[in-house]
Automatic annotation (TrEMBL):
PANTHER family: PROTEIN DIPZ (PTHR42852:SF13), THIOL:DISULFIDE INTERCHANGE PROTEIN DSBE (PTHR42852). It comes from Leptonema illini DSM 21528. Keywords: Redox-active center. This is Alkyl hydroperoxide reductase/ Thiol specific antioxidant/ Mal allergen. Coiled coil: none annotated. The lineage of its organism: Bacteria, Pseudomonadati, Spirochaetota, Spirochaetia, Leptospirales. It comes from the Bacteria. InterPro entries: AhpC/TSA, Thioredoxin-like_sf, Thioredoxin_CS, Thioredoxin_domain, Thioredoxin_ResA/DsbE_sf. The keyword rRNA processing does not apply.
Amino acid sequence: MLQYLKDNLSTVIIFSLLLGWLLYQRIPMYQASSKMEGREAPDFTLSALDGRTYRLSELRGKVVVVNFWATWCLPCKVEIPILKSLHSELENDGLVILGLTQESAEQVMSFVQEHEMNYPVVIDDRSEAADAYGIRGYPTVVVVDRDGKINSFTTGLNFFMKWQIRRLVTGSWI
């Protein structure tokens, strides 16, 4: 074993450095999320692709999922069917999903049509909302409860998101 480590020392060092760097990059995201949860959600007013204007504070009384995403983000593409399903199932129970992107409407329009996104997509081209929430990576899902407080703030793919949101909206996991 000792000889193996000597022979492959450079590989072990590079692997260790890479692993350390990856962990270092993820830790601030989790620290930021824990600081946001339980706080009042920063308000924003943004226009959607369909021309409607959404102001977060006007959605009080509903559970709002703010999904920060980008067209080039593979995990974001994985979340789209989950968000579409949630929107279809829980829209009448007081759930609002806003897909929030910093890309231009021109960049996003064909992507939205191709993926048949059935929830509003709002454009944050001046990064107002992204800066207010301290977004550091995609996807980031911020769930705002009916009182306007941040219930959860998750960066990265969350496979349990559907059940967590369903429980917040309906009070049941199923």
